[in-house]
Design goal:
Elements (H helix, E strand, L loop, with lengths): L9 E3 L1 E3 L8 E2 L5 E2 L1 H11 L3 E3 L3 E2 L5 H6 L5 E2 L7 H4 L3 E2 L4 E10 L17 E4 L3 H11 L8 E4 L2 H9 L5 E5 H10 L2 E13 L2 E2 L4 H16 L2 H9 L3
Parallel strand pairs: 1-5, 2-6, 2-7, 10-11, 10-12
Antiparallel strand pairs: 3-4, 7-14, 8-14, 9-12, 9-13
Helix pairs in contact: 1-7, 1-8
The structure holds glutamine.
Amino acid sequence: SSILGGGSAGTIVPGTASGFPPFEFVNEQGELVGFDVDLLTAVVDETDYELGEWSDLNFDTLITALQNDQIDTIAAAMTITEGRDETIDFTDPYYDANQAVLVRENSDFRPSGTGDLADRPIGAQSGTTGESEMQALVEEGVVSESQTTAYENYVLAVQDLVNGNVDAVIVDTPVAETFVADRPVVSAFTIETGEQYGFGVRTNDDDRQQALNEGLQAVMDDGTYEELTRKWFAS
Ligand code: GLN
């Protein structure tokens, strides 16, 4: 798509946070894989940039890593929020999500709304919009602060749910579906948050932002995006 190509514009070093299947996770071979990994690779391939080495970090350190130039973009199913938009920029949206409330399959507890979570121990991953929903329940007096746990990643949160240490986990709907398919958990209800994911870029890094937006448009137009959704999401 370019005359020069081959990374002549420079490098885009990507950062992510594994433990968020199917967007980014470490497979049985120990490789970092997922929808975001494939999508960003295809997107950068459409640009004059070269894709650098992936950094796998904790989700709640990604924005700092971007600001410190440790990485050049965040590809971590990160929701475009007003708060984050104050410190970094985002590409155009590439995926929609809401929040699901996961509970154990082998229990009678089937909450149908946030009120039913009253006085239950609940969890979410640190630094996420799911954690924000959890904090909102503290502010509404549904649960107390001491009943909430913020985990390093969602794999640990769901493990603690299965083990009975928390009674519910609040997590993005597409990721909840993956856990439901693989673990003894079910989605009890959904909180309609209307989130959209974007790739994060540094404020003022207009060149990378524009290149990624053009690359995103190209993979959406040529069918690559759809192919990747079929590869990574059960229909
Ligand atoms: N979309 C959610 C957020 O941005 C969760 C992302 C994640 O855990 N990787 O907070």
